Amino acid sequence: MKEFTKEELAEFNGENGKKAYVAVEGKVYDVTGNAHWVGGKHHGVVAGQDVTKAIMSSPHGTAVLAKLEQVGTLKG
């Protein structure tokens, strides 16, 4: 699995045909093609960054992560 820096992760924002990745608790997940992440955005949260706080405060919590493919880890 790839180890991403925050700068590398930022490139995967789901815009202009790019893949959409998000980091949660140090793990990077692919949300590309997920119906809830159209254009790399989900309820004001943007792909390409660490979304741990947003996931933890959401009604579904981390339960949705089981349905996503982990593609790497986030450095630091």
Automatic annotation (TrEMBL):
Superkingdom of this protein's organism: Bacteria
Region forming the signal peptide: none
Database matches in InterPro entries: Cyt_B5-like_heme/steroid-bd, Cyt_B5-like_heme/steroid_sf
Protein name: Cytochrome B5
SMART domains for the chain: Cyt-b5
Residue ranges constituting the Cytochrome b5 heme-binding domain according to the UniProt record: 4-75
